[in-house]
Structures
1.
Amino acid sequence: MIINKTFDTAIIGAGVAGSALLYTLARYTDIREVILFEKYEEPALLNSSPRANSQTLHIGDIETNYTLEKARTVKHNAAMIAHYITRFGYEERIGFRRDKMILAVGEEETARLEERYREFSELFPYYRRMEGDELREREPMLMEGREEKVLALGVEGEITTVDFQKLSESFIENALESGKNIQMHYNEEVTEIREADGLFEIVTPNSTYKARSVVANAGAYSLLFAQHLGYGKNLAILPIGGSFFFTTRKLLNSKVYTMQHPKLPFAAVHADPDITADWNTRFGPTAFALPKLERYRQAHIMDLLEAMDIGKDTLEVYYNLLKDSTIRNYIFRNFLDELPYVGKNVFVKDAKKIIPSMTADDLVFADGYGGMRPQIIDKNTHQLQMGEAKLTVGGAIFNMTPSPGASTSLAIAEKDARQICDFLGKRFDEAKHREEIVGE
Ligand SMILES: Cc1cc2nc3c(=O)[nH]c(=O)nc-3n(C[C@H](O)[C@H](O)[C@H](O)COP(=O)(O)OP(=O)(O)OC[C@H]3O[C@@H](n4cnc5c(N)ncnc54)[C@H](O)[C@@H]3O)c2cc1C
């Protein structure tokens, strides 16, 4: 059945990215007719669920793989989430002020962190430089049985922990209160987007809908929609799974991140007090290639094969990754982490960097936790791209948002809302957006 009404914008996916866009369009533009499709019964059941991600607001201060320039951009972008949370009174429900730190272990890492402290202090003046005694007092388990030299840069009093699922729900609630015509279609999977007569047709098993603009915020599926329209043919997805381990009792008060190995593309081991488990300590995520598009649900096999697009160019990227012994060992260890019984005995070696006295008996595999990162491969450059990827063609936008996509979701939404306004000849309310979201 073809629905005769034409929407201004159709959004696909009610994860944090899709719901942030819905909110931004509803509150800061004069776009009136928006339809959102979500294939599951509620928002944010996949990567934006607090069970899928590490619940960290990545702002650039403890992410040692970021350059100063990247940290400056991420700070601006992620601060929008913190500002939204405080501005609308969502503290202790959606966003939490919990301590966090970046920990350097051994001579080489402490020297590197010392240098970073000097370079980044102007951007993050709130850093608290901590060594032995202070760390022992704040986080006794961090120091128990430790022999190597350590240095930490701590952060206090900032919003560091976010329930991105509740955040998504709040975006949708606020959008629905805007008085615009917003239609939420849950349990309705988009199977195809096509172009016809200058409009987009969004096909679902129920009906075909028409929209002047369309944004796919559907994880790896966004790339498939783009490719069916003939865009992004040079890209493929390497699906990287991430799992977690809980400790048998709460061992830490703060989020503790470790220094990034310069060669490794994924976040080094960290420990996070978990919102969903009464702030018990959760370690991870691991990182391993997994032939899936959703961590705990099966994708259609053809979608998976299409997204991975295994051919000469993608295989060359896999080969380049594997020929480096550091990356090879890392991938192999992460694969072992997933094996029953063996896993925690391997993982504990990494976890000991944070808690030296830890044994495998202190760890339990976090069943039902974990997500999938849709990492992008560029087949032209033969590179694995880190961070978000976006394809924009006039009124159609396709977003793939691996970490830290949840932290930067309002910034991604701003960019897309501006693009759609330009395309449709609509207005973006700069002053209201700056006052409520940017906060500068
Ligand atoms: C292990 C792990 C740890 C992470 N930790 C962090 C962290 O600490 N901080 C951080 O900022 N980021 C983190 N991330 C990244 C973050 O989780 C993602 O960037 C973010 O959740 C992506 O949001 P999204 O809305 O794009 O995707 P999703 O949350 O996956 O939402 C996509 C939505 O689209 C829907 N959908 C898909 N296809 C269709 C279709 N055909 N029709 C209708 N609906 C469809 C899905 O059902 C889903 O609801 C982590 C990721 C992983 C995997």
2.
Amino acid sequence: MEYTTVTDTTAAGRKLDDLAPVYEAVFAEPPYLEGPRDVADFLERYQREHKTPGFRLVLALDAGRLAGFAYGLPLASNTGWWTGFLDTDPPDEFTREDGHRTFVVMELAVLADQRGHGVGHALHNALLDGVTAERVTLTVRPEAPAATWYERLGYQLVGLTQPWDGAPVYRSMIKPLRNQDVSA
Ligand SMILES: CC(C)(COP(=O)(O)OP(=O)(O)OC[C@H]1O[C@@H](n2cnc3c(N)ncnc32)[C@H](O)[C@@H]1OP(=O)(O)O)[C@@H](O)C(=O)NCCC(=O)NCCS
């Protein structure tokens, strides 16, 4: 498996045609059961997100074929990321952002026939390699196998969140990147 990190905005934009079929296949699976509308939302989101300063994309290529990808970006100072909690109300000092403090793992996906061989770990590690933020965060559906997988990677629960009305409930998770205390 070969891993390639893309940080250039133009190059990251050009990769979208490669990411789309992998996203579609992976998130059609339970518990996501995503369809064409969700894939269209992903395409629209990516077209905005890849232009964010600090955006990083990592591709896992198996003999030239895309086996998985991960991407993420830093939270902006005016982010709404730390809203929508159902069971906790993190303090201002915890939710304060300045564009550098927190890196978000936005998507991490490995094709089903490539899982269980360390590709997910390698994508995750390559994505964070060189990130200078204090902490990394992500949201994950509690019923997804990835929820416990992230715990094994050292992520701690912040709380349960519902980002918009009618959205599924997600676990908001956080992990220190530089020996920081990240508890809410
Ligand atoms: C979550 C996901 C990315 C993990 O990908 P993966 O390639 O199977 O991950 P890994 O192979 O690194 O880890 C899976 C297991 O394989 C094991 N493994 C096998 N060989 C390994 C190796 N060489 N190096 C590291 N781990 C290895 C690991 O121990 C790990 O076991 P664990 O689950 O007990 O920790 C993948 O299941 C996926 O795409 N799921 C659907 C999408 C999703 O839910 N994404 C996350 C939410 S956005």
3.
Amino acid sequence: MRPLIDKKRVANGRAAGNRVAGALATLEKHLRRAMPGHCAFCLGEPAPEQSWCMPCYRELAWNRNGCCLCAEPLSRAQALCRRCRAASPAFARARVPLVYQGAVRELVQDFKFHASPRAGTLLVELFVSALDETPAEALVPVPLHPARARQRGFNQARWLAGQLGTRLGLPVIEASRRVDTPSQRPLSRGERFANLAEAFAVATPLPERVALVDDVMTTGATVNALALAARRAGAREVVVYALARTSLGAS
Ligand SMILES: [Zn+2]
Ligand SMILES: [Zn+2]
């Protein structure tokens, strides 16, 4: 079986494990990650009480230079990205420990598109290992669009929030997504933003400090809209917990 992180290939300077394709490879991955007592990435001996060995852990795409507010990966340590310098988001900060690339990307795809609980559990463990703050008082997963929920039948943000809630001892409070009305004409940027600002609602009154939970954070527009809804429902400090951040490469 091919390890997810191949030390030789990494040493050769090529991105780890992005060449896997086809059902056979997927099956192989499921089997590999189901093996207890081995590092999930290289199959070597894991660190005590961990699902990984330390060299593989260190080699993962950690989001070390993330923007202080939205966690967008920056090319070097800067306090804020271009967008956050222009306008602060509706959330106080985002905790997104990983960058969506290489082995992390494979793991997230395995979790998201094949609903692999082993990949999901591993991602939650990685997230918790990197969490350096006192958790919020409640978790609010990003609701899936009803059409997509029907199609796919797996709500990864809700699953993640459930797992995190169990580990951190926090309740999970659900938000709802309002039904989109398709527009008759193309929307301007401002109109799109206004539309999105009303996209979510939280029926339950929220405690003061909440964390929104999503799997992959891309532009931050969705969590920003959910943060507005959380604030309307009484939250004073809203943070975002996501596993991985895509790099927009614009800052
Ligand atoms: Zn390893
Ligand atoms: Zn930012």
